[in-house]
Hints:
The complex is a heterodimer. By secondary structure, chain A is mainly α.
Amino acid sequence: MTMRDNEPTTAPATPHIPSPAEMAAEVMGGHKPHASPAVRSFARELGVDLALLQGSGPHARITFADVKRYVRSVVASRR
Amino acid sequence: MSATSPQSDTALIPAIATDADPEETREWLDALEAVIEKVGPERAHYLIEQLIQMGHRTGINIPYSATTEYINTIPADQQPKAPGNYEIEHRIRSYVRWNAIAMVLRANKDDSGLGGHIASFASAATLFDVGFNHFWRSNAEGNGDMVYIQGHSAPGVYARAFMLGGLTEQQMDNFRREVDGNGLSSYPHPWLMPDFWQFPTVSMGLGPIQAIYQARFMKYMQDRELKNTEGRKVWCFCGDGEMDEPESMGAIGMAGREKLDNLIFVINCNLQRLDGPVRGNGKIIQELESDFRGSGWNVIKVVWGSYWDQLFAKDKQGHLRQRMMEYLDGDYQTLRARDGAYLREHFFNTPELQAMVADWSDEDIWRLNRGGHDPHKLFAAYSAATHHKGQPTVILAKTIKGYGMGGSGEAQNITHQQKKMDTASLKSFIERFDLPIADADIESLPYLKFAEDSPEFKYMMERRQSLGGFVAKRKRRVDPLPVPALAAFDALLKGGGAGREFSTTMAFVRALMLLLRDEALGKRMVPIVVDESRTFGMEGLFRTIGIWNQEGQKYTPVDAGEYSFYKESKNGQILQEGINEAGAMADWIAAATAYSTHGVQMLPVYVFYSMFGMQRTMDLVWAAGDQRSRGFLIGGTSGRTTLNGEGLQHEDGHSHVLSATVPNCISYDPTFAYEVAVIVQDGLRRMVAEQQDVFYYLTVLNENYEHPPMPEGNDVAADILKGMYSFRKGSEGKLKVQLLGSGAIFCEAMAAAELLKNDWGVEADLWSCPSFTELARDGHETERQNRLHPGATPHVAHVTKCLAPTQGPVIAATDYVRLFADQIRPYIPHDGRRYVVLGTDGFGRSDTREKLRHFFEVDRYWITLAALNALADGGEIPHSTAAAAITKYGLDPNKPNPTTV
Lengths: 79, 901
Ligand SMILES: Cc1ncc(C[n+]2csc(CCOP(=O)(O)OP(=O)(O)O)c2C)c(N)n1
Ligand SMILES: [Mg+2]
């Protein structure tokens, strides 16, 4: 099969290449709560679902204080 | 929250099966994922680095993986837009491709057997083209970039030069036909095309190692304020197969350590070498990536061309990347030798992958190109490489060997050596590259050129003008510097006086000191050592001129405060290569050709352990000759018996045989200090004052003995240079012999003269022969002159001229194999006299000098015996006299031949 040489002559239209963030979301299931491993383990011990929390750290990172505050508020609301 | 598919788990967490606490693992990974997503990949990278550092600090020995995915280092969406007109460049490149093929095919049209390569340049054409059009600044005046072209891709460079008017059609037709003049050399050879080629590269591995040292020498020139080399680059093109040569990769650690950000390697990863695949079962690009990154290089992979970008866009789950990584080089090669349907079936082999190309035709799939065939990807890589600071860069470009050759050659195992293409293949090549060649003309293989008023020609010219001129152009000479007269070496000419013993090594070091203090030449001297300075008594130079180190000396040397301490400094002059003869030789070449590459005459003096010079790095010495190097190579502690204690691997008795094979290498084995002075001074005259493209090999000794003053006489200096002069005449007498010798063994000849006189009543004339090699060359030339001019007054060889008026057999003894002194046999006067050569053939061994000279049968007693035997053979004395000498000197007639033990 003879075809014209295909070394591209025009600048390629740059498609959107999935960013690491998109790939991570895609491959790992995506959109995980933003919290450190330590906070995760802390939340697990307390049975807290981090998905329900709003983080107060930089980039809305969930901190220990956030978890504690959340537990306190739940406990308070049960009273 | 969506469930994660098990398949993607295995993609990212391969060790999950052996995971002791998957919950914990997941928490860490989830945390990381969240960081990537919420903060960004840079932050994620930082955290990973911190974790690894913490691990290291606490003693966890974490091995480091230096590879990345099998994709381009520069993602499509971060690729700069390449300037230039790529339509035009493609048309130009198509012509270049054709001409490069045509010249090889034309050279092999009849059964000339001239050879040549098509497939290699076919795979490299775009790699070169982007450089020619956008990056390489001409070095014609010693101010531009230095480009080491892959040797057997030379036709591509000729093709381009032809299209620019630098070569004629006749020259193109003389590819590999050089003997009648106006030819083009098979490969880049400055010796053969001194105005065109700068660097000989075709001996695989020598290009890369020379390029590395060339780049570092640029920094040396800059630090020593001899040349502003800021911004200049060294580009080196190599094949992926070539990287298996130890020289190719042997110095990459140095390049990393020395932060040679003026160095760019482009490795053409066409996955094939001559016989077959480079790494059929693996991935050469990945292997090279980790080797180079581990050595501190910036690695840019250019694996895939633009047509893949849209698939990467779809590849959110990483299936494509995973397939790319697991597919083997051998299979990648096979893919490109088949077609689109085969590619679809074998590469896109899972439902996910098949889905990606479901609506693509086989032709679309076949169009999926490799990075090295995409000028936009290459431009991005070259641009990143030229801007990278603090590290050398390697570009790993994936290509197809025999690109464009179609079924007859593309990616075939036989493609490397293909020098013929049938008409059908040519026809499809012409179609493929849209070349203006009518069917009727195909057989005549016409060269293609753009008219001078065409946009293509103007484009090519404009590109080169904007980059300072042509790449294939070499500077041949610089304005000469004044060289010291012989009188400047007076201390050596006078000798040491009675009772003062020293070595020729010391004499040479003294000459070097004088030159280092010379007003004009001092700065231009480049002493190069390989961790042997103390061996040669040169350590005094450490303090006086310093060892060059880009970083200066950040530590306190252990001998600080001592007179002669180990001084490293940014403006040091010595190049200390460590135990690294190949590197030092490459360094020497860079300095020895600086007159051409920088337009600055330098004078390198590389002092090596003679056994580890020629023998160890002969191919580089040959390349040095090819590129018209000028400088001194000094073989220290030479002589099979003179270097006595070191044994078989150290004791050199044959480097002069090797040096004699290099036509522009002038070699000497001097005995006395004044000989050294005369030789060095004349070397300066020829190399610096007269700009002759020769270099010098001197062997020097570590044996101490007395050095007489230079003998009187008008011709002595000239005769030393010719290789033979009358050292001392014996008295008149009935029995005479002529004793010849060089190096330390000449002293044995002197002692033999005494024995002959005192014990046997034989007078000897003594001839010091600092160069049997030069004598032989003079003899060869004389002989051929006479052959070519029968009947004319014959020229007389120097040896013949010296010996003709003398009487008696001629005995030569040296510390080298017999072949060395035997070279002059044809020029011994043809008057029935014997010529007997003693030498040190055989493996060296350790013992005292006396013992070794006895063992190799080159000492005074053996010389005496040889002289008496020769006299007896000539009927001048009875053989019983020789037998008496054997008894008198206690020589054992049953002693085994030294070559057998
Ligand atoms: C030291 C040395 N050994 C062998 C050769 C012969 N030779 C020339 S090219 C070649 C194969 C080169 O393969 P590669 O480096 O991959 O370059 P490619 O042609 O594939 O670009 C060989 C073996 C040589 N030139 N030098
Ligand atoms: Mg190859």
